[in-house]
């Protein structure tokens, strides 16, 4: 029987899908309560994340983007998300810009994870950009998606050091661990509705803030 209280998450991905798997693990473990992933959509047939979804018995669809105009493509994806009654869309390594049509269809209900401390290093190869720039710290960001690239209000961020011997791969791996952690935190907060947005600031409510502190204290023992 379907639980009417359960919030439905739609995940869009283009590749490996480790962020999708982290979210799926968190839903299964109750770290994201009262939720289910009702659909995973990939624009690429060869995305390993699609197979991972199928292995987990989560409905998975491939909607190929090659040769399809941006808004026409987004209309197909939005239709599939609506069919799956999705409340929240999570971009998890979905390497496409969303059209204004898509953003309007799910306004305030789309999250993205990006492997840098935005607003530094938006766009492609964020870890490479961070290394080339010579920053000593980088990290990751979960943000709401608006019409501009990697630019919506920030829900969560985490910092990692850039070490002298780092390559793009070692830095990406260090950042990825934090991605998996903060994506869960951000989705949990957004689905709980215990926040407000003031200007660009996403502010947890006082209630959420104290629950967080209690949880933090419990974790630390
Ligand atoms: C992640 O590092 C994610 O932050 C990045 O792609 C990777 C996907 O990994 N996303 C972007 O760069 C978006 N601009 P995954 O498929 O294992 O989750």
Given helix and strand content, the structural type is alpha/beta
If classified by CATH, what would the architecture of the largest domain be? 3-Layer(aba) Sandwich
Number of strands: 9
| Poorly predicted sequence stretches spanning 5 or more consecutive residues | none
CATH class of the largest domain: Alpha Beta
Bound molecules: glycinamide ribonucleotide
Provide the residue-averaged pLDDT. Answer: 95
CATH topology of the largest domain: Rossmann fold
Radius of gyration: 17 Å
Describe this structure in words.
The protein has helices at residues 18-29, 48-55, 70-83, 100-105, 126-133, 168-192, 206-220; strands at 7-13, 35-42, 60-62, 88-91, 110-114, 137-144, 154-161, 195-198, 201-204. It is of the alpha/beta class. It has 2 domains: 1-107, 3-Layer(aba) Sandwich (Rossmann fold), CATH 3.40.50.170; 113-221, Rossmann fold, CATH 3.40.50. A 7-stranded mixed sheet has the order 3-2-1-4-5-6-7, with helices on both faces. A two-stranded antiparallel ribbon has the order 8-9. Helix 1 links the parallel strand 1 (7-13) and strand 2. Helix 1 runs parallel beside helix 6. The N and C termini lie far apart (37 Å). The model has no long low-confidence stretch (mean pLDDT 95). It binds glycinamide ribonucleotide. Residues 13, 15-19, 49, 92-93, 113-115, 126, 176, 179 line the site of glycinamide ribonucleotide (GAR).
């Amino acid at each position: 029987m379907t639980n009417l209280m359960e919030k439905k998450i739609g995940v869009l991905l283009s590749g490996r899908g480790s962020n999708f798997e982290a979210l799926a693990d968190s839903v299964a473990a109750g770290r994201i309560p009262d939720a289910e992933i009702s659909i995973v959509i990939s624009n690429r047939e060869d995305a390993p994340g699609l197979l991972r979804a199928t292995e987990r018995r989560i409905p998975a669809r491939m909607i190929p983007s090659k040769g399809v105009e941006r808004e026409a493509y987004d209309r197909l994806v939005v239709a599939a998300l609506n069919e799956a009654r999705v409340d929240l869309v999570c971009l998890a390594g979905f390497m496409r810009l969303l059209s204004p049509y898509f953003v309007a269809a799910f306004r305030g209900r789309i999250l993205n994870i990006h492997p840098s401390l935005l607003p530094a290093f938006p766009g492609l190869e964020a870890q490479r950009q961070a290394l080339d720039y010579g920053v000593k710290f980088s990290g990751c960001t979960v943000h709401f998606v608006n019409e501009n690239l990697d630019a919506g209000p920030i829900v969560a961020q985490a910092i990692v050091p850039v070490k002298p011997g780092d390559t793009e791969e070692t830095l990406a791996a260090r950042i990825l661990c934090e991605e998996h952690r903060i994506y869960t935190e951000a989705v949990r907060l957004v689905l709980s509705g215990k926040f407000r947005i003031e200007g660009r600031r996403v502010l947890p409510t006082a209630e959420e803030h104290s629950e967080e502190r209690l949880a933090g204290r419990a974790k630390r023992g």
